[in-house]
Design goal:
This protein has about 60 residues and is mainly α. It contains two helices and no strands. It starts with a helix and ends in a 19-residue tail after the last helix.
């Protein structure tokens, strides 16, 4: 029966840590930009030159 109390205490402690991390991230602006990730897939990647300065062929 004592192990149940220990496991409940550990789970409450872990839940409190995750809740604190969520509030810290929300307060520091981690979830501010909700528009850019949805349109990032639409932008083409830039083609980089190789070592000789030639354009890569497709």
């Amino acid at each position: 029966m004592n192990i149940i109390f220990l496991l409940i205490g550990c789970s409450v402690l872990i839940a409190a840590v995750f809740l604190g991390a969520f509030f810290w991230a929300a307060r520091n602006g981690q979830h501010e930009d909700t528009y850019t990730p949805s349109i990032r897939i639409l932008f083409d990647d830039e083609i980089q030159d190789d070592e000789n300065g030639d354009k890569p062929t497709l």
